[in-house]
Amino acid sequence: MTNDKCSGFTLLEVMVAIAIIAIALTAVLGSQSQSLSLASEAKFSTTAAFLAQGKMAEIEAEKAEDLTSDSGDFGEDFPGYGWELSVNDVTFDEPEGVSEHLKQIDLTVSWEDHDEYEYRLRLYRFLPETQ
Q1: How many CB atoms lie within 10 A of CB 86?
Q2: Which of 5, 17, 62, 81 is the least buried, fewest Cβ under 10 Å from its Cβ?
Q3: So what CATH class is 45-126?
Q4: What are the phi and psi torsion angles at 26 (to 5°)?
Q5: How much is the pLDDT for 131?
Q6: In the predicted model, is pLDDT for residue 82 greater than 90?
Q7: Which residues is 32 bridged to in the sheet?
């Protein structure tokens, strides 16, 4: 009596196994890509907050007459990071005489011209009359 059954895998079984492996690898690689993206975003958020804090400290130390809108970068230590400063007068009706001494200072720290990587700060600074 001969045994007609062959031991081994059929083509259908092999294709199902390959499909399952492909789906699993796609999920693993997708989560790896997302992990890298989140790590990059976390690095930017931490670094930008640090750089913005330092730049705001420089701005607060400046004399009132030296406050102007400007932009620049953070040098070789932080390549790809840039900053933009906007200084505007704040106007409101009451109380009288205060608005000409109040400045709105907006600081934006960005990374390599990516719109999604921007860190913004706003500071209001009261500038007393100079004698």
Answers
A1: 14
A2: 5
A3: alpha beta
A4: -60, -45
A5: 45
A6: yes
A7: none
Q: Could you give the CA distance from residue 68 to residue 85 in angstroms, rounded to a whole number? A: 8
The strands making up 70-73's β-sheet, listed across from edge to edge, are 70-73, 81-89, 102-111, 118-126
How many beta carbons lie within 10 A of that of residue 106, not counting itself?
Answer: 14
Which secondary structure element, helix H or strand E, spans residue 122, and what is its range?
strand 118-126
- Return the sign of the alpha-carbon dihedral for residues 50, 54, 55, 56: positive
What's the chain's length in residues?
A: 131
Query: Which two tokens mark 7?
Result: 């031991």
d(Cα 60, Cα 56) in Å, to the nearest integer?
6
Q: Is the pTM of this model over 0.70?
A: no
Tokens 């693993």 — which residue? 28
